[in-house]
Known about the structure:
The chain has helices at residues 3-35, 53-61, 106-124; strands at residues 38-43, 70-78, 84-92, 95-103, 134-147, 154-165, 168-184, 189-204, 206-208, 211-229, 234-252, 257-268, 273-274, 283-284, 289-299, 303-304. By secondary structure, the protein is an alpha+beta fold. It folds into two domains: 3-30 and 134-303, Beta Barrel (Porin), CATH 2.40.160; 37-124, 2-Layer Sandwich (Double Stranded RNA Binding Domain), CATH 3.30.160.100. The longest helix is centred in the first third of the chain and has 33 residues, at 3-35.
Amino acid sequence: MSSRPRLHRALPAVACYLAVLLILLFAVRTRADASDPLKIRWVAPLDCPRGDFDRELTSLLGDTPPPAQAEVDVSALPFGPRRYHLSLRLMAADQPATRELELASCADVRHAAALLIATALQDANGRPPPTAAGSGLQLRLGAVGDALSLPAISGGPEIGIAWRMNGLRLGIEGRYLLAREASDDDSQIRTDVDLLAGSLAGAYVFPLGSVAVGPTLAVELGRLGATARGEQARDGGALWVSALVGGRVELPLNGTFGLVLAAQLCLPLRRPSFSLAAEQPFYETSRLGLRLAIGMNIQLEDKRTAGTGQ
């Protein structure tokens, strides 16, 4: 079986996959920009940039919905040698709040501003004040669809568990792709091919408005099974090893549950083929596969890594 026709058939699917991924990322970015009700103005000398202030604030807020509209003015001015005077004014729900502090470094300014803003917003919503970025175990239950890895489009269940620490995700996943039929018109062979696999996966997501977006990377190991039907019925299988490269979007629903969407390219590190006796292979896996997955994230535990609330 020649791989060139299969590769040619794959090109439109690859182009469609990339187009959908770009449209999804653009839509997420547009939605995040349009829906972000928190406006922050940062005024400080050049030697005190905004830096990672936004990431720390997003981590401290967690899934707390901000008020319909909130405006924050952060002013950090030099006050003597190696001293900064922080003046913070927050207007949320028509209730102004002002805080002033003297701090020793710009890093202290960024941390204090993020903590004060998050505390004020969570207090306004009746939530306990933040203590630090969260970490813990995360269970994912979902479904995955695949194109080109098997003889035809397939799908099946997927499960995973990961350690979450801020934006980092490290875990293991398992999935099963339902059998699809491979056929050879010359020999009238009909074979069902399925895939049972697990993977070591990593991801890092960045907050983007109400969602988090980031790249993913995984190494997948499993068994590609084949069951021939007809006069030469028999079972067989082959080792499956592939790399999965793509991205994911996480949408928190509350403190426990959230939706996750993932799109990945599947790159087989070896390409199993199936044949009967000494005959030519009647099926060979593709050079490239496409994966789309949707699932529900469930936070099994949530630990705080640093700091205390006041």
